[in-house]
Amino acid sequence: MQAVVTCRAAVPEDVESLYQLISGYAERGIMLPRSREALHRQLQHFVVAEINNELVGCGSLCQLGKELVEIRSLGISDGHKGQGIGSHLVDKLMEHAAARGLRKVMALTYEVSFFVKNGFEVVDTSVFPEKVWADCRHCPKQDRCDEIAVLKVLDI
Q1: What is the DSSP secondary structure assignment for residue 105, as one 8-state letter?
Q2: Domain extent at residue 121
Q3: The pLDDT value given to residue 58
Q4: Half-sphere exposure of residue 126, counting CA atoms within 13 Å on the CB side?
Q5: Contact by Cβ (8 Å): 46, 9
Q6: Are 136 and 129 in contact (CB under 8 A)?
Q7: Residues 112-150 as b or e (16 or more Cβ within 10 Å = b)
Q8: Which of 16, 46, 53, 129 sits CB 3.0–4.6 Å from 60 for a disulfide?
Q9: Could you give the number of structural domains in the chain?
Q10: Which residues pair with 50 in a beta bridge?
Q11: pLDDT for residue 133
Q12: Diameter of the chain by CA atoms?
């Protein structure tokens, strides 16, 4: 029997679980770390996935421009990958972006096939000057970025 995945807005009680999940990815160098304080400040931008009241995934949106938003901190806990949870989170994030009138949703990722499967297309990072000026100039990988840019344009 397939477990029921519930996606919802993050609440303050989720911060420690978010911190632990994101830290695991950050330790492997595949996600930027987030402090507990930053998570509290950015909590309204996060959605979480739960199975049986256990937080098993998360993702957030960060507005970069008038029409552009970035998916950030998208992660699934070990033991729950490959069950469609990431797609559920992306769908919920797309709903949030559309509700805010944000047509362009981008991500920088190592999981290109996942995003392509979810309707994104690979693009050159140069089409996101908002991202470059907001974040990339502060990144330690700035001159040797190995992430791939993906974009989905919403019909809203």
Answers
A1: E
A2: 5-153
A3: 98
A4: 1
A5: yes
A6: no
A7: eebbeebebeeeeeeebebbbeebbeeeeeeeeeebbbb
A8: 46
A9: 1
A10: 6, 55
A11: 44
A12: 47
